[in-house]
């Protein structure tokens, strides 16, 4: 279950964190947010939801006027110059559980975001109070960094503040200074081609192109109930499901799964940027990426079931053969 704005505010109160809240119309940019809270005093934040080529995710939370060079940041993480890009909106909803324009460090309270890395601008430390959205861009809350740290520690996070404008040399004798922030606990799928497009979002959040994440992968890896049932039966019964004992039916099962995934993912929906004809290569890359993301765990699961079924049948066949050959006494 995703945290709601009210649940988050209640949690902050339970932690005895002092904050002020300001309701306002939904805002999609820091500039729009500034119209409502910019005159109060404190640092407005912009929050970027990023992904790398191995489908690992990052929230970069910076002061509104901090210049974040994506290429430099990517190198400092050890990902190469083009290793970072904006994460797609659907992934934001799936992992952070917040809509476009509402990216915030507070989204890490959701279990689905447990493997998302967080980089905080060291400039926040110089501010008396900092503004963030509390999971919704129709409100801003202000608090100091000590209380932000208190919240992050309450969810098992160790707050890390870095100089996001620094551009240190990276080379053979100078390793990437931010490499320790690359997530290590997330499931990583093989590198896939991946289209790029960017949409700037609110209170400092950006979004775009495509990908998956641990939560998406875990969701895909969870075998469907019928697959799990087949697996359980194959372990207990001598005569498992015929779809896993007949190669032709097994292939049909795979094709059925792929078709179902294609339909469920709605891969052929028209994109926001334009129609399908205009998207061309990007749409093809998107389909290939999502198809791999959705089907890889399922197909691996089916292949394992098929292998186990063959092993089980061979075992019982061998046992039956040995019994028939045993001399009677």
UniProtKB/TrEMBL annotation:
Instruction: Name all YbaK/aminoacyl-tRNA synthetase-associated domain ranges.
Output: 24-151
Pfam families per the UniProt record, alphabetical: tRNA_edit
What InterPro entries does its record include?
A: ProX/PRXD1, YbaK/aa-tRNA-synt-asso_dom_sf, YbaK/aa-tRNA-synth-assoc-dom
In terms of superkingdom, the source organism counts as Eukaryota
**MF GO annotations:** aminoacyl-tRNA deacylase activity
Q: Which family does the UniProt entry place this protein in?
A: Belongs to the PRORSD1 family.
Q: What is this protein called?
A: YbaK/aminoacyl-tRNA synthetase-associated domain-containing protein
């Amino acid at each position: 279950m995703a945290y709601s704005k009210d649940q988050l505010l209640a949690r902050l109160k339970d932690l005895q964190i002092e904050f002020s809240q300001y309701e306002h119309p939904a805002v999609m940019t820091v500039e729009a947010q500034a119209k409502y809270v910019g005159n109060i005093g404190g640092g407005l934040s912009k929050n970027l939801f990023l992904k790398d080529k191995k489908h690992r995710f990052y929230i970069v939370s910076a002061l509104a006027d901090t210049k974040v060079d994506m290429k430099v940041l990517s190198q400092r993480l050890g990902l190469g110059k083009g290793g970072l890009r904006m994460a797609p909106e659907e992934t934001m909803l799936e992992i952070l559980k917040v809509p476009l324009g509402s990216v915030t460090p507070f989204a890490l309270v959701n279990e689905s975001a447990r493997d998302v890395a967080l980089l905080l601008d060291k400039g926040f430390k110089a501010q008396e109070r900092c503004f963030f959205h509390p999971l919704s861009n129709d409100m801003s809350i202000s608090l100091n960094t000590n209380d932000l740290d208190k919240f992050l520690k309450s969810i098992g996070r160790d707050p890390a503040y870095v100089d996001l404008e620094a551009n240190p040399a990276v080379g053979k004798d100078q390793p990437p200074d931010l490499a320790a922030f690359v997530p290590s606990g997330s499931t990583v799928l093989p590198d896939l081609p991946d289209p790029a497009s960017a949409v700037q979002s609110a209170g400092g959040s950006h979004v775009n192109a495509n990908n998956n994440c641990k939560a998406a992968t875990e969701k895909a890896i969870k075998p469907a109930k019928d697959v799990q049932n087949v697996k359980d039966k194959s372990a207990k019964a001598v005569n498992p499901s015929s779809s896993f004992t007949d190669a032709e039916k097994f292939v049909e099962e795979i094709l059925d799964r792929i078709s179902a995934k294609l339909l469920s993912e709605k891969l052929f929906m028209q994109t926001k940027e334009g129609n399908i004809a205009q998207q061309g290569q990007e749409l093809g890359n998107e389909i290939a990426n999502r198809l791999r993301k959705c089907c890889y765990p399922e197909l691996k699961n089916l292949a394992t079931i098929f292998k186990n079924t063959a092993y089980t049948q061979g075992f019982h066949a061998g046992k039956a053969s040995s019994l028939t050959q045993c001399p009677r006494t």
